[in-house]
């Protein structure tokens, strides 16, 4: 690092800091628009290479390099917007585009986070930035959004500003299961559920259809391709034939396994979206680290931070003293880079700050001032805050984080929601990961207090029932909440509630004794209240594996026939039996929930041609016709609004 005649530090462009130079130039000029020629003249790296852009070759080279640098900044969350000036014309030799930072009209939100918030905040940031649906009102969304594109926003949300108020965010580890589940759902659609709009990320159209059918009173709203794909499945389901339910003793057993990538629907195109790399939004590059450090210092002008503290926040916790020295040296070099100027002292270069050099040299403490207005990038935009808050709320109520982090997410949500206007927090969901249902807390409280539960629920056929039970445990199977209920509770029930006791007398095929257990999907519980038992409960322990066996033992045999063999969705069915049948296959399985089987067959109706028994086939046709009518009503309502 050389010193100029005026004592100011000069920069070397060997490490390729075009992005920071561009950012400095545009920030110092804001809110003015700069033309391509002005940018080329003010950014030293461009000026040295392309001069005054006197010929077409120089213009083409500049355009290529500038768009590359612009894309790098956009990928980090700093957007550069463009426009075409009215005075531009080829004949006059003027530029056809001008540029400036995209800062938005609303001020950024700044708040302080606790160290224990960072793991949850990093996970929520990953989820928020992976969802293509923004919190903008529906009428501002593009009319024909393509589902063939990755869900990563094409217009980046300036989320990098979060690093400026949450230093160390980029060093956090994101749980692998969260990354895997988010990345496997390449598309997003807006689904109306009981009048609320939810942004749903899903893997393919079968996956989306299953989500809609498992949530009563819901329908796909947008994009049009998703609506059309859902309608095709409903129409196909109305044509289901009755299958022969006889079994072939030579049928092949199917073992359940997770599918890495689902078969794309015919409307999703052949282009596959690239999966995000592990920790895709966790920063790590040299330029990116300097950007985060730059925004952090911009948001905390005049405050003092030691080099070891900055090293731990922006590089990570060192393993030993030698590694700490290495990290400190790296941060010191970053500070030097962020305070350099160009060789002639006139171009903007990257002199983002004035640093108290005597304090830095004597005590290793960084205190920055004069940030070229870059503090405008520090903090969270209101739009991104709403999506981040929704992501924190979702992670607090879905089985994607460890329980301790879910508790932390609930606490963090209570603080974030204060910065979001009522009604502006979007709802979002990942298919297959059910949020804690409405009556989840009541069931959980009854288990914790060893109490009874007076519940109204829908059984597998959709009938509304009321029952007094003693919940024993809640467990999650394939992203769905189930509760194990002990039904032999008459001796514990108050006299006025004893008529609600119905002991389950289903026989255990192994012992011949009544099962007495009821396994119920928690989402089917419509209402629930905790009831104090007349004496302490004495409920036998039961394992989840035994409960799963019982579900199979008490299930109803069902059949469906496909139009072709070796379909991936069949492999997701545990303990299903498959036999050849014409050009396709006949699948035999045991169904515990009639409504689940109805939803499953409709969701995969493009490959299912016949089902059995007749009672379930009738239910499928009736459900498909009802969904078609409901979907038409929702679409008409959306148009009127």
Can you give me a brief rundown of this structure?
This protein is α+β, with helices and mostly antiparallel strands and 641 residues long. Helix content is 35%, strand content 18%. The chain folds into 5 domains: 15-85 and 95-105, Orthogonal Bundle (Arc Repressor Mutant, subunit A), CATH 1.10.10; 106-136 and 159-165 and 379-432, de novo design (two linked rop proteins), CATH 1.20.1440; 185-245 and 555-640, no CATH class; 302-370, no CATH class; 439-552, no CATH class.
Provide structural commentary:
By secondary structure, this protein is of the alpha+beta class. The protein folds into five domains: 15-85 and 95-105, Arc Repressor Mutant, subunit A (Orthogonal Bundle); 106-136 and 159-165 and 379-432, de novo design (two linked rop proteins); 185-245 and 555-640, no CATH class; 302-370, no CATH class; 439-552, no CATH class. 35% of the residues lie in helices and 18% in strands. It has a six-stranded mixed sheet. Helix 8 packs antiparallel against helix 18 and helix 18 (594-603) packs across helix 19 (614-640). The longest helix is centred in the last third of the chain and has 27 residues, at 614-640. It is globular. The protein starts with 17 loop residues before the first helix and ends with a helix. The model is unreliable at 1-16, 87-94, 132-158, 255-283 and 342-349 (pLDDT under 50). Residues 247-281 are annotated as: Disordered. This is WYL domain-containing protein. It comes from Bifidobacterium castoris.
């Amino acid at each position: 690092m050389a010193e100029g005649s005026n004592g100011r530090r000069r920069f070397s462009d060997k490490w390729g800091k075009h992005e920071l130079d561009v950012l400095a130039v545009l920030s110092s000029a804001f809110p003015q628009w700069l033309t391509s020629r002005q940018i080329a003249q003010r950014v030293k790296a461009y000026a040295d290479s392309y001069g005054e852009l006197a010929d077409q070759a120089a213009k083409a080279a500049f355009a290529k390099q500038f768009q590359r640098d612009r894309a790098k900044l956009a990928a980090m969350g700093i957007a550069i917007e463009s426009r075409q000036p009215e005075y531009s014309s080829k004949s006059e030799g003027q530029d056809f585009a001008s540029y400036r930072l995209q800062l938005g009209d609303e001020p950024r939100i700044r708040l302080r986070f606790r160290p224990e918030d960072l793991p949850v905040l990093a996970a929520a940031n990953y989820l928020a930035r992976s969802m293509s649906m923004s919190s903008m009102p529906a009428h501002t969304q593009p009319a024909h959004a393509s589902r063939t594109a990755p869900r990563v926003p094409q217009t980046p949300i300036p989320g990098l500003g979060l690093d400026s108020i949450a230093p160390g965010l980029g060093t956090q580890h994101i749980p692998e299961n969260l990354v895997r589940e988010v990345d496997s759902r390449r598309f997003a659609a807006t689904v109306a559920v009981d009048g609320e709009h939810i942004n749903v990320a899903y893997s393919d159209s079968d996956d989306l259809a299953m989500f809609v059918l498992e949530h009563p009173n819901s329908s796909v709203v947008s994009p049009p391709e998703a609506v059309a794909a859902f309608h095709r499945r409903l129409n196909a389901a109305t044509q289901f034939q009755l299958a022969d339910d006889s079994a072939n003793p030579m049928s092949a057993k199917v073992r359940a396994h997770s599918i890495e990538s689902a078969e794309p629907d015919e409307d999703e195109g052949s282009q596959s979206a690239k999966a995000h790399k592990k920790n895709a939004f966790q920063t790590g590059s040299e330029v990116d680290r300097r950007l985060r450090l730059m925004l952090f210092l911009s948001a905390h002008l005049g405050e003092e931070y030691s080099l070891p503290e900055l090293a731990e926040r922006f590089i990570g916790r060192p393993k030993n003293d030698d590694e700490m020295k290495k990290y400190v040296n790296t941060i010191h070099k970053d500070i030097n880079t962020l305070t350099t100027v160009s060789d002639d002292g006139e171009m903007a270069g990257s002199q983002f700050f004035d640093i108290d050099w005597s304090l830095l040299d004597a005590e290793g403490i960084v205190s920055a001032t004069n940030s070229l207005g870059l503090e405008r990038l520090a903090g969270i935009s209101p739009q991104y805050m709403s999506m981040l808050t929704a992501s924190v709320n979702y992670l607090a109520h879905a089985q994607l984080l460890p329980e301790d982090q879910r508790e932390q997410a609930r606490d963090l949500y209570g603080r974030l929601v204060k910065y979001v206007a009522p009604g502006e927090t979007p709802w979002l969901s990942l298919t297959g990961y059910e949020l804690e249902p409405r009556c989840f807390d009541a069931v959980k409280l009854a288990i914790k207090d060893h109490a009874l539960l007076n519940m109204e629920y829908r059984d597998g056929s959709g009938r509304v029932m009321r029952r007094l039970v003693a919940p024993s445990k809640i467990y999650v199977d394939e992203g769905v909440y189930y509760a194990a209920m002990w039904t032999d509770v008459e001796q514990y029930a108050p006299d006025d509630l004893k008529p609600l006791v119905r002991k389950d007398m289903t026989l255990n095929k192994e012992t011949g004794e009544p099962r007495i257990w009821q396994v119920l999907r928690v989402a089917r519980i419509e209402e629930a209240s905790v009831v104090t038992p007349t004496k302490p409960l004495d409920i036998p322990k039961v394992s989840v594996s035994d409960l799963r066996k019982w579900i199979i033992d008490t299930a109803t045999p069902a059949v469906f026939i496909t139009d072709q063999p070796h379909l991936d969705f069949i492999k997701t069915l545990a303990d299903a039996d498959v036999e050849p049948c014409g050009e396709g296959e006949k699948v035999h399985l045991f169904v515990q929930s009639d409504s689940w089987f109805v939803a499953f067959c409709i969701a995969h109706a493009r490959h299912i041609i016949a089902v059995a028994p007749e009672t379930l086939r009738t239910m499928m046709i009736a459900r498909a016709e009802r969904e078609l009518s409901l979907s038409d009503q929702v679409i008409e309502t959306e148009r009127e609004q």
